[in-house]
């Protein structure tokens, strides 16, 4: 079958409620340069059909930075790595409220409290709960959390406090995971993501591309995450930080990033597909193209240890595409 016929057939299948197979996804992600625009347009059509024109704009706070016990090879915050970052303990409740307020005033629709640790101590968990409550009472913005491994009691507590979404990424496919982390397993991650969902929290569960995985493993990540039916899938593009084992990794080419976003949209037609860390660095002047290739979410005001666009810049970009915030 010709490439464009394949793209057309896969798009029609998705629009009529069918799922794409691994073999078709693999053929799509290997689309030639000649048919690339056709693939991106098809993914854009699927995005529009299932998600409309609103772009999910989220702002993060790195609420506790560095010295994490885990050895994730991509992460500047691992105590095992030597990346130069600002390290600090958990921010005060007042500071977190102020950051949430600033995020709301900048135009972000949601605010995610992210902490670099395997899991919080009891005191740390209580502190984050106090911050969630204060933000909900005083600021009025959707609050999301990314606090590492969860148990049922904590998931229930977060849900009761009104946390909207829990972020716990798979990071990579199951088959690649032991290459990037040995202090916990892919299944540990999968189980926490599943537990968040089972306790009524929306799930944000994505990963990173460009860590040395094969194209098949990149697709495996999307299919494996899709089993959890996440409300949101963030696609991070590796920022190969000096002082981490992945420093020096070749960057993913822009066309391959766009291909990946497009095919992930075929695999997860209904979720918020968010272009996350590495967007500004790797996509440069093609950032808006990502929002016309299947993506419908961004993180604004920078990332955990890397700066990014301001919300003002991002919102202007979204409006210039006739999309809404
Ligand atoms: S568990 Fe999270 S914060 Fe810790 S090293 Fe891994 S990715 Fe970084």
TrEMBL record:
[2Fe-2S] cluster binds at residues 112, 204, 274. It catalyses: (4R,5S)-dethiobiotin + (sulfur carrier)-SH + 2 reduced [2Fe-2S]-[ferredoxin] + 2 S-adenosyl-L-methionine = (sulfur carrier)-H + biotin + 2 5'-deoxyadenosine + 2 L-methionine + 2 oxidized [2Fe-2S]-[ferredoxin]. Binds 1 [2Fe-2S] cluster. The cluster is coordinated with 3 cysteines and 1 arginine. Residues 49-279 form the Radical SAM core domain. Pathway: Cofactor biosynthesis; biotin biosynthesis; biotin from 7,8-diaminononanoate: step 2/2. One of its GO terms (molecular function) is iron ion binding. It is an enzyme of class 2 (transferase). It comes from the Archaea. Transmembrane segments: none annotated. NCBIfam families: bioB. Belongs to the radical SAM superfamily. Biotin synthase family. Homodimer. This is Biotin synthase. The lineage of its organism: Archaea, Nitrososphaerota, Nitrososphaeria, Candidatus Nitrosocaldales, Candidatus Nitrosocaldaceae.
């Amino acid at each position: 079958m010709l490439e464009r016929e394949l793209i057309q057939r896969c798009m029609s299948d998705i629009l009529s409620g069918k799922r794409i197979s691994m073999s078709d996804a693999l053929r799509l992600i290997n689309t030639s340069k000649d048919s690339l625009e056709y693939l991106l347009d098809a993914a854009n059509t699927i995005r529009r059909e299932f998600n409309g024109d609103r772009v999910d704009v989220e702002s993060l706070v790195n609420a506790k930075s560095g010295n994490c016990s885990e050895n994730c090879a991509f992460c500047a915050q691992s105590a095992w790595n030597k990346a130069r970052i600002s390290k600090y303990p958990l921010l005060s409740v007042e500071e977190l409220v102020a950051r949430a307020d600033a995020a709301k005033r900048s135009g972000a629709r949601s605010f995610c409290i992210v902490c670099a640790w395997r899991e919080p101590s009891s005191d740390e968990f209580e502190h984050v709960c106090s911050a969630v409550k204060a933000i909900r009472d005083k600021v009025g913005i959707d609050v999301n959390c990314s606090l590492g491994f969860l148990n049922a009691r904590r998931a229930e507590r977060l849900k009761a406090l009104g946390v909207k979404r829990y972020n716990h990424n798979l990071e990579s496919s199951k088959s690649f995971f032991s290459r990037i982390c040995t202090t916990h397993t892919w299944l540990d991650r999968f189980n926490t993501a599943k537990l968040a969902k089972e306790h009524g929290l929306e799930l944000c569960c994505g990963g990173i591309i460009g860590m040395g995985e094969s194209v098949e493993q990149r697709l495996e990540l999307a299919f494996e995450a899709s089993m959890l039916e996440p409300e949101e899938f963030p696609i991070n593009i590796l920022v190969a930080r000096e002082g981490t084992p992945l420093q020096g990794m070749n960057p993913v080419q822009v066309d391959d990033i766009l291909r990946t976003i497009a095919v992930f949209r075929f695999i997860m037609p209904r979720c918020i597909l968010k272009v996350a860390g590495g967007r500004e660095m790797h996509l440069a002047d093609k950032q808006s193209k990502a929002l016309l290739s299947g993506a419908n979410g961004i993180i604004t005001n920078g990332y955990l240890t890397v700066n990014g666009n301001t919300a003002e810049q991002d919102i202007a970009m979204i409006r210039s595409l006739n999309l809404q915030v």
